[in-house]
Specification:
Length: 663
């Protein structure tokens, strides 16, 4: 039975599916409410346009599936299988920082407590994670002092002739020596430790008080005094927890920065309303495959606080440090937005990340603040709430929130800004000095001299409307904003990036030649073009028309991040993603893009304020805004027929607009 035939036999129930390659290796794990529909969707023709989806379908020769009762079970099973199999097409959790747990070795005859950073299925109980990290060590020290359960590495399967120092300083019951303690006394202490670590101080205090009274009645006053001291310690800790709870709930806050196929995520741990630690995650070459259907929308029945207004990647910042919200997306052209995010889908990423971080973990905070909404958020909320209720033996609700304004949104923005800093520290800042980078750039691009000045050009427009260009300057190791230049493209109509690049380069260096006759200023060490071979050749034609020869000229393609040097186009340069030379070129290119988009935005605002549409009877400001948002430019509205206009405005308005421009 071939793969397509097998897919037709898959049931329509909820479950998990596993794609396998020819070697029998699991290459992708996914979940679905309808297994047959989801698995078959990978073979729809439109899905093959996604490079990673096409690669998956070409590699997959078999598919297995596991049917479950509901979507929550599918969530948990998918998470477990991803962690076990580590399929290369799934988003896998990578963590640069692990937090400690307190381990209670219940599988041993004489259980002990340790601080550990690894969770194992060895019969032990794990509590945590604790942050800051030293909190776990303070808790274990408190257990030693008050409950006398040790952390030693002594072999407790046999008795030893004498105890260690911990027994003499009253931090251990001495199970290593015969007759120093009894199994009953030791197990009683272990039960107390378990109640303490599980966060059940009321039950622990009640048990200790009962034993204190029994010891006092039996005239065992020393033992009763020890119980009294334990009760005092537990009640003091409980009072501190009450104060912390009054100050605010526990929460985890996420922010992210994505750029050039690399991702940095920051996680803020808020405990008792205070930030106690920060956690960093990094990914390189993320799988671009979606875990859900492309057409699926986030859940519409969100809590108002979770999705007030349009849902967007609130915690994301682009290469210039600007927040990417709805307004910023409108300011970018279609190519710009695609070039920024590529095939990265924040909702699908955070769906996978939260599952791997919290499913099966011993503690989940009450609130999780995500920068984006995702499809299975409510199912994950229910699953984590049930998990916490089972752990704490009382109803506990976990909320996954997507705040859009207010203090909580500010926290996400703060996490996003820190993620940008983490990205820079990981992928940009840790590099050689400026002189070394200049030497490597000279070597990589075969420049005749050490690069001292780089001028970079970028074109910005939306469907050919209000086309503008920018030129930014890097000189002696830094951006020189006083030499930035803006250009309004005047000789090009419609969408023609090549002609626009030819015009702006001609205008720029024609003026430089005229100024050089007076000041004798040299040409830049490198002219850098934001674009591919077409833009590179257009710039070369402009320089040749001015009889400028031997000018170093290069272009950087947005998606592939490949460098094309003029004269060596057949041998493009693909630098390592962590190369400081590539980071420098990207920095300059991104600055040119930012400068061009900012200028283009201002031009559009000026145009929109005096748009010709407002002169048409029956067309007001709101109608004008809808038309421009739908068609992208005034020129596109002019070229639309009445039928196309009717999709946005009423029939009578559409005919009035069409007749106005036809006349």
């Amino acid at each position: 039975m071939d793969l397509l035939q097998k897919i037709r036999t898959i049931p329509t129930e909820p479950g998990v599916y596993l794609y396998k390659n020819a070697e029998g290796e699991v290459i992708y794990v996914g979940k679905a409410k309808n297994l047959r529909s989801r698995v078959a969707s990978y073979f729809h023709e439109g899905r093959w346009e996604d490079a990673k989806t096409g690669t998956l379908v070409r590699e997959a020769v078999d598919v297995d599936y596991i049917v479950v009762a509901n979507n929550k079970e599918a969530l948990a099973l998918e998470n477990n299988l991803i962690k076990q199999r580590k399929p290369r097409f799934n988003i896998l959790l990578r963590d640069d920082k692990t937090y400690p747990y307190v381990k209670l070795t219940l599988g041993e005859r004489w259980p002990r407590v340790y601080v550990t950073r690894r969770l194992r299925k060895d019969g032990s109980e794990y509590y945590g994670p604790y942050f800051p990290a030293n909190l776990a060590y303070r808790i274990v020290d408190l257990i030693h002092r008050n409950f006398l359960i040790p952390s030693c590495k002594v072999d407790l399967t046999r008795f030893h002739p004498r105890p260690c120092l911990q027994y003499y300083i009253k931090r251990c019951l001495g199970p290593c020596v015969k007759d120093l303690t009894t199994p009953e006394i030791y197990q009683e202490a272990v039960r107390d430790v378990k109640l303490f670590l599980e966060g059940r101080p009321t039950d622990l205090s009640r048990s200790l008080r009962m034993r204190m009274e029994q010891a006092a009645a039996a005239q065992e006053y020393e033992r009763a005094a020890r119980y009294r001291d334990l009760i005092s310690t537990v009640e003091q800790l409980q009072e501190r927890q009450r104060i912390a709870a009054a100050e605010g709930d526990d929460a985890d806050v996420f922010g992210y920065h994505y750029e050039n196929g690399m991702l940095a995520v920051n996680l803020f741990h808020m405990r008792g309303g205070k930030m106690v630690d920060r956690r960093e995650f990094f990914w390189e070459d993320l799988p671009e495959l979606t875990t859900e259907d492309r057409g699926s929308e986030p859940s519409s029945n969100c809590h108002p606080e979770r999705s007030e207004g349009p849902v967007h990647p609130a915690g994301s910042v682009d290469a210039t440090g600007d927040s990417i919200g709805p307004s910023a997306r409108k300011e970018r052209g279609p190519q710009d937005d695609k070039g920024l995010a590529g095939n990265f889908h924040p909702g699908e990423f955070f769906s996978a990340l939260l599952k791997q971080l919290y499913i099966g973990q011993p503690y989940v905070p009450r609130n999780l603040y995500s920068p984006v909404d995702f499809e299975d958020r409510e199912e994950l909320e229910d699953l984590l709430s049930e998990q916490e209720a089972d752990r704490s033996a009382r109803p506990t609700r976990v909320h996954i929130l997507v705040p859009q304004r207010g203090d909580k949104r500010s926290l996400i923005d703060l996490a996003g800004n820190n993620a940008k800093q983490s990205y820079d520290q990981r992928f940009r800042i840790l590099k050689p000095n400026a002189r070394k980078i200049q030497e490597e750039l000279q070597d990589a691009l075969s420049l005749p001299e050490l690069p001292k000045r780089i001028e970079c050009f970028d074109i910005s427009h939306i469907q050919g409307a209000e086309t503008v260009a920018s030129m930014v300057v890097w000189e002696d190791g830094r951006m020189k904003k006083s030499d930035y230049r803006k250009f309004i493209i005047r000789s090009v109509e419609g969408v023609d990036d090549f002609a626009s690049m030819r015009e702006v380069v001609t205008r720029r260096y024609k003026r430089v030649l005229q100024e050089n006759e007076k000041d004798k200023k040299p040409m830049p060490s490198l002219v850098l073009i934001d674009g591919g071979l077409g833009q590179l050749h257009a710039a070369a034609e402009a320089l040749e028309s001015l009889e400028i020869i031997n000018q170093p000229l290069a272009a950087i393609a947005k998606r592939e991040e490949i460098l094309y040097v003029y004269g060596q186009e057949k041998d493009p340069i693909a630098l390592d993603h962590h190369s400081p030379v590539l980071h420098l070129i990207q920095l300059i290119r991104d600055e040119a893009h930012r400068f061009a988009v900012t200028f283009h935005r201002k031009r559009r605002q000026m145009r929109d304020r005096s748009t010709e549409l407002l002169e048409i009877p029956g067309v007001g400001t709101s109608t004008t805004r809808r038309l421009l948002e739908h068609f992208g430019s005034l020129q596109a509205v002019k070229q639309a027929d009445a039928a196309a206009l009717s999709a946005v405005v009423t029939r009578s308005q559409a005919e009035a607009i069409h007749n106005h421009f036809r006349k």
